[in-house]
Design brief:
Distance between the termini of chain A: 29 Å
Largest sheet of chain A: 3 strands, antiparallel
Number of helices of chain B: 29
Number of helices of chain A: 4
Mean pLDDT of chain B: 81
CATH topology of chain A: Arc Repressor Mutant, subunit A
Structural class of chain B: alpha+beta
Strand content of chain A: 15-25%
Number of strands of chain B: 24
CATH class of chain A: Mainly Alpha
Number of domains of chain B: 5
Oligomer: heterodimer
Radius of gyration of chain A: 16 Å
CATH architecture of chain A: Orthogonal Bundle
Shape of chain A: globular
Number of domains of chain A: 1
């Protein structure tokens, strides 16, 4: 979900995604960055992202991932599910 | 829809797997490079930056693997595991061959025996609803399974209220006449509804019609499928043809189905109605009944009903039917009841062996997993997931099981054919259901099921040994967990049991083999080599008078003796090595009689009989050819009869009588011959008398010929010469004395028992040895460090050998000692099967113990050598 979310703004390469997640979460969500790649393969396989090779600003070849319409739909579903859950957890915590 | 797209994306990635790998690699390298750059920007030294980047990235091999697994088809990982497994097994061919061999034997033996179980016990009998069929007997004080008489059959059939139908059959030997002469032909006589009761419809033609079994009905005959093929080439126009049975023409009306058999009457080629057996005599017993239960009638209530009828008949006809009760059994019980316990014992034996075999191979796998701990630990550290490692082991186990199963099925097929060939023809004819023996769907299913079970066991054993803590230990030191100790203890006990099982079976096989040898070489009182034998039935009208029979004897013996290659020929009414039956009661003339029971076997033999078979005359003389009814009656008695009835006297010159009131027919004892074995090879010596054939000739006898050439080759000439003399004479049972001895039921019993026990013993020995190897090797692998320390402290190689061999020797000694005790008990139990050998036969016991000890030594020498060649420095460093 996080990966899909980072890709909503612009296509990014793996490193960019990792940086983006780290920056946006203020360094709270740091995982072994390599674990990104199996996840990306899964998204590719599901057809939620597309990949293409492009040059970076520093003129190196990198694979950029783009959100597909199916991916956008999936993200929407997951976000609403997540919000429902967060809301539910919030209500439980408030009551207690 | 989505899954389809997913599949195609997956397929595309599969097809461009190389590209996928390259791209992933590049992408990850790019990531690390960027991270490193980031570090360097923060002012970290280039080398440290690279390390830092790698640390932050994580274990790239694992991610690569995970990515692969995400996009790979399920079979790709499997294929990879499979290739790896093959490589592992190739690297260690000794292990692979041993494991596969054991599995092959274990699975092969189980499946082969299951094949027999299936053919005999599981495959339904070829009748309609066979479990509603019963067989009916008359029970008399001698035993429960006796024949019933025709009038009783008619009454049972009429009075019963529980059977849909009730019919009878009687196995019968016909004399078949065809243009080439007269032959004996097997068959049976049945009542008209016999096949309808069984629910069998002829494959060709029709069944007997109601009433066709009555006196004076036209004679009709049904052929068995094999007789149709054999005698008529399977031609359709066989219907309506005539076949001469017992001099009566019978019209062929049908052919029975190919899979039809009826074991109690087999072998049977000709099925006629019982019209010749119809009689009013209630004391004349000749039939067995079969019946089909009415729907809803239980076996018990039917039995009670028919018992009541028999009791009523016993009251009504006390003269003939006193003490005659009805007896009834399910048909399957009659057909396969005898063989069922044998097969079940064999099957459980094979199952037990298979279980031990599997546990053994599992222990071998364990030894290997032990020696591969390091490899596993390294692979684990490099990022192989637990599941991945376990899958690798499972694959290796499955490769072994699969190979073993395939070979095992092939071995089972061969084994079944071999076993079936080992069964003599006569016995096989009585078990027609075994003809369907083979690898059918059920047998294959059974094979797959046991393979699957073995596979599960194999996969679980090493997998259970893998755990995370173990993995760490594997890297750091040769940890000896509780599980290891437990396994060793369990394994040791198992090995002791295996070795003693092997010992018991080997002793059994040894004793049986020895008694089989003794049996074949027992002194039967004659020279068995170069003796050809042929049985003759001269049943036609031409041989009703004594003179005609004597003339025939002279002609036959004269012409056969003159055959080239024949030294001499003679005849006897019964051949040696038979059932020992054919007895007569007698009295000794001039001795007071107080009603003692005096009975010995009696044979009518021609004058040259003793000389031809080369019996040994102890006293007196044999008969002369001229001793016929014009001379006083003469008799030669055997040694046992002489000892039994004339203790301390010289019987020669004494007289005996069958009828003490007819002095003219008193028999003069003229000679004593050394015992000829008339009964089975292992029968106790029994009294026998030999009377002169010419003083009481018969029309049914066996000719024996002593040959100077191969005795088998003379048989066709003997047959054709008899046919020339008179084509109406039937000849059959052409055989040689060696064959007769070899194929006799007692020899067969001993041979098959020796083979079966021997086979099991061989497997048990193999398993015991492999088991011992497994346990010792495991122990060595666990004690490598200890051995290294010992050697570092100055232990000699010899003492390491002693250490390991001592452990193995201890297990072996316990196993052999326990085996010895059990063997003695087991041998005592099977005393009845032994012949000429004591249950505590010392040479056999010692030989078996030595063989077992040597095999055990060999099995433990290999790991001991490995232990002794441990390099202390390496062993210690390796830890």
């Amino acid at each position: 979900m996080l990966i899909l979310k980072t890709l909503t703004r612009a296509p990014l390469h793996g490193y960019g995604i990792a940086q983006s997640i780290k920056r946006l979460s203020d360094d709270v969500l740091t995982v072994e960055e390599g674990s990104l790649y199996p996840a990306l393969q899964r998204l590719l396989l599901q057809g939620w992202v597309k990949a293409e090779w492009k040059k970076t600003e520093t003129n190196r070849r990198a694979r950029y991932y783009t959100l597909t319409p199916a991916g956008r739909k999936q993200l929407g579903e997951e976000l609403s599910q997540f919000e429902l859950m967060i809301a539910a957890i919030g209500r439980v915590l408030q009551d207690a | 829809m989505e899954s389809l797209g997913r599949f195609f994306r997956k397929l595309r990635m599969f097809l461009c797997r190389e590209k996928f790998n390259r791209e992933l690699e590049e992408e990850m390298a790019f990531h690390r490079a960027e991270t490193a750059k980031e570090f360097r920007v923060e002012g970290v030294a280039s080398e440290d930056a690279r390390h830092g980047a790698n640390r932050r990235f994580g274990n790239d091999a694992r991610f690569r693997d995970e990515s692969h697994e995400t996009v790979a088809f399920w079979f790709e990982g499997l294929l990879q595991d499979f290739r790896f497994a093959l490589r592992q097994l190739r690297k260690n061919p000794g292990f692979a061959v041993t494991a596969i061999l054991i599995l092959t034997f274990g699975i092969g033996a189980s499946v082969a025996i299951f094949g027999f179980v299936d053919a005999a016990l599981i495959k339904p009998l070829p009748y309609k609803n066979p479990n509603r069929l019963v067989v009916l007997f008359e029970s008399i004080p001698l035993g429960p399974r006796f024949h019933l008489s025709y009038p009783d059959y008619v009454d049972w059939k009429r009075e019963n209220t529980v059977f849909q139908s009730l019919d009878v059959y009687a196995p019968y030997g016909f004399m078949l006449s065809d243009p080439t002469g007269t032959h004996k032909a097997d068959g049976a006589r049945v009542s008209d509804g016999f096949f309808r009761t069984l629910g069998v419809v002829p494959a060709l033609g029709r069944d007997f019609r109601p009433g066709e079994d009555q006196k004076n009905a036209p004679r009709t005959v049904l052929l068995s499928y094999s007789a149709w093929q054999r005698l008529y080439g399977g031609r359709k126009d066989v219907l309506g043809q005539t076949v001469i049975l017992d001099s009566h023409p019978n019209t062929i009306i049908g052919v029975l189905p190919r899979d039809f058999h009826y074991a109690p009457a087999e072998p049977a080629d000709f099925w006629t109605t019982l019209q010749d057996n119809i009689s009013d005599c209630r004391g004349c017993h000749g039939f067995y009944g079969i019946a089909r239960l009415k729907d809803g009638v239980s076996f018990q209530s039917a039995f009670a009903n028919i018992k009541g009828i028999a009791d009523q008949l016993a009251r009504q006809y006390p003269d003939s039917n006193r003490d005659q009760k009805a007896f009834m059994l399910p048909m399957s019980e009659v057909i396969v009841g005898d063989i069922r316990p044998i097969l079940l014992v064999l099957l459980s034996g094979a199952g037990l062996l298979l279980l031990i075999a599997t546990v053994n191979v599992a222990s071998l796998l364990l030894v290997r997993s032990e020696s591969r701990r390091r490899e596993i630990a390294v692979r684990g550290a490099l990022g192989a997931s637990m599941g991945r490692l376990i899958r690798q082991f499972v694959t290796e186990g499955l490769v072994l099981v699969a190979t073993g199963s395939v070979l095992g099925l092939a071995a089972a097929y061969g084994g079944m054919q071999l076993f079936a060939h080992l069964i003599p023809k006569d016995m096989m004819a009585g078990m027609p259901y075994l003809h369907g023996l083979g690898l059918n769907a059920r047998v294959l299913l059974f094979g797959c099921a046991i393979s699957l079970a073995a596979g599960i066991l194999f996969s679980l054993t090493p997998a259970l040994r893998l755990s995370h803590s173990e993995m760490r230990e594997g890297l750091t030191d040769g940890g000896r967990g509780y599980a290891g100790t437990m396994w060793r203890r369990f394994g040791s006990n198992l090995v002791v049991i295996e070795l003693s099982t092997a010992m018991v079976l080997l002793v059994g096989a040894g004793l049986l083999g020895k008694s089989f040898y003794r049996l074949l070489h027992v002194d039967i009182g004659l020279q068995p080599d170069h003796l050809a034998m042929l049985t003759v039935g001269a049943t036609s009208e031409n041989y009703k008078k004594d003179e005609q029979r004597i003339a025939l004897e002279r002609q036959l013996i004269g012409q056969i003796s003159a055959l080239p290659g024949v030294k001499s020929a003679a005849l006897s009414t019964r051949l040696p090595i038979g059932d020992g039956d054919g007895t007569a009661g007698f009295r000794i003339v001039g001795r007071p009689y107080h009603g003692e029971h005096m009975e010995v076997a009696i044979r009518k033999v021609s004058s040259g009989y003793f000389a031809t078979i080369q019996a040994q005359l102890l006293r007196g003389r044999y008969f002369g050819e001229d001793e016929d009814n014009s001379k006083p009656q003469v008799v030669v008695i055997n040694e046992t009869m002489a000892k039994q009835y004339f203790p301390g006297e010289d019987p020669v010159g004494k007289k005996i009588a069958f009828d003490i009131d007819k002095p003219k027919e008193y028999l003069h004892i003229v000679g004593i011959v050394k015992d000829l074995q008339e009964g089975q090879l292992d029968a106790a010596p029994r009294g026998a008398m030999y009377v002169a054939y010419n003083q009481g000739p018969d029309n049914f006898f066996s000719i024996v010929a002593r040959t100077s050439q191969d005795e088998e080759s003379i048989l066709p000439a003997m047959t054709s010469i008899i046919r020339q003399i008179d084509p109406s004479i039937a000849t059959f049972g052409g055989s040689t004395m060696s064959e007769r001895i070899h194929d006799s039921p007692s020899a067969y019993l001993h041979r098959s028992a020796a083979w079966i026990v021997g086979g099991f013993a061989g497997l048990a020995l193999l398993l015991g040895v492999v088991g011992l190897y497994g346990v010792i090797a495991y122990s060595v692998s666990q004690r490598t460090r200890e051995i290294g320390v010992r050697m570092a402290l100055g232990a000699q190689r010899g003492s390491v050998y002693r250490l390991i061999l001592g452990e193995a020797g201890w297990l072996t000694i316990v196993g052999i000692a326990a085996g010895l005790a059990v063997s003695l008990a087991a041998a005592t139990l099977m005393r009845k099967l032994l012949f000429g050998v004591q249950a505590w036969d010392a040479p056999t016991l010692i030989a078996v113990a030595v063989v077992l000890a040597l095999c055990a030594l060999l099995a433990s020498y290999l790991p001991a050598r490995r232990a002794a060649s441990v390099n202390p420095v390496e062993a210690l460093r390796a830890e």
